[in-house]
Amino acid sequence: MGYLEEMAKYQKSAKQKEFGADFLVKEDIDQYEFWDEIEIGKESELPDKFEVKAEDLVAYAEGVPDTNPIFYDEEYARKCGHDGIVAHPMFGTQVGFFVMRKGHGSWIRTPGARNPGQIIEYFDPIKVGDILTMKIKGHDKWIKRGKYYMRYMTETFDQRGNLKIRYYVTLILPRTREDVMKFLKGEHALQA
Amino acid sequence: MEKKITFESVNCGDVLPEVRQLVGQEVIWQHAAGSMDYNPVHNNPEWCKTAQVFGLPVTVMHGNQTMSLMCKVVTNWAYPSGGRMKRIESKLVRPVPVDTTCIYGATVTEKHPIGKGLDFVTLDIWAKDEQGNTVGVAEADVYLP
């Protein structure tokens, strides 16, 4: 069984089943933004929406893995003082990958990307029934010890305009399209 | 119901219960499905043999899974009492190869008595492998009732 079939065992929610799990499709990568093309200050509101279902919150908690009933049991979560089952603090990762799959922000899928750490600020808690949209803006890019960093500010809102999370997504990326295409072929393409 | 944690009951220097996790390939695949981060550096063992993004011929855990497990220390501790995260800032300092067991823990470092509903504490969170190597650190602010 190949790795895509292995991962399919864990794709239970409607969004998981619909989302493409192969990040090595050349036609997709051709449309990505690359480090040397990223424009700081460029901003947009992404077209895709994310309607939060209980199964989405459960899918993230299962993937941690975390069996705390606050993520699964509405009655228990309410007894604990929450307004229904809780979104795991890193649930924004699922939202981000879901809405940034093409166009502006697609650098998030880059083969060869490395994660140096993230900054997240939380505002109104994400809840079942929220319809989330995301605004993103190029925040910074820099070179340090031969590595090419980029940081985007993303803000996630619900259908009432309430800010839910502000997530400064930071990645170390291959520098150019040519470097990413080497990774597509399974070749190492980093100098540091 | 567990004993309630409150802002008043917490002191600087308090140590939170640790979390331990063996990160095998199945655990990484399930995280990929949960987060929708299907980058091959985590998921595709054949690709990793040659691509070696981290200089390793094997898959590595998602950095955001390390963050998620650091958050688990917080959610186990504060969320059953109605606490919730205000901010987290992490540094991921070392890749975690597949089949590594890591331990995650935290200490209360600051108390911020802002006002009812706004009081929060600051935590230093760490993640280490079984050899004691730090793989990630974070600072988190957490609202407590």
Rg of chain B computed from alpha carbons, rounded to a whole number of angstroms: 17 Å
What fold name stands as the CATH topology of one domain in chain A? Answer: Thiol Ester Dehydrase, Chain A
Q: How confident overall, as mean pLDDT of chain A?
A: 96
Q: So, CATH architecture of one domain in chain B? A: Roll
Count of helical regions of chain B: 4
The fraction of residues in strands of chain B falls at 25-35%
Query: What would the CATH topology of one domain in chain B be?
Result: Thiol Ester Dehydrase, Chain A
Strand count of chain B: 5
Which sheet architecture does the biggest sheet of chain A show? 6 strands, antiparallel
Give the helix tally of chain A: 7
How far apart are the termini of chain B? 16 Å
CATH 4th-level superfamily of one domain in chain A? Hotdog Thioesterase
| Broad shape of chain B | elongated
Low-confidence stretches of chain A: none
Task: Give keywords.
heterodimer, A: 192 residues, alpha+beta, Thiol Ester Dehydrase, Chain A, 6 strands, 24% helix, globular, B: 145 residues, 4 helices, 26% helix
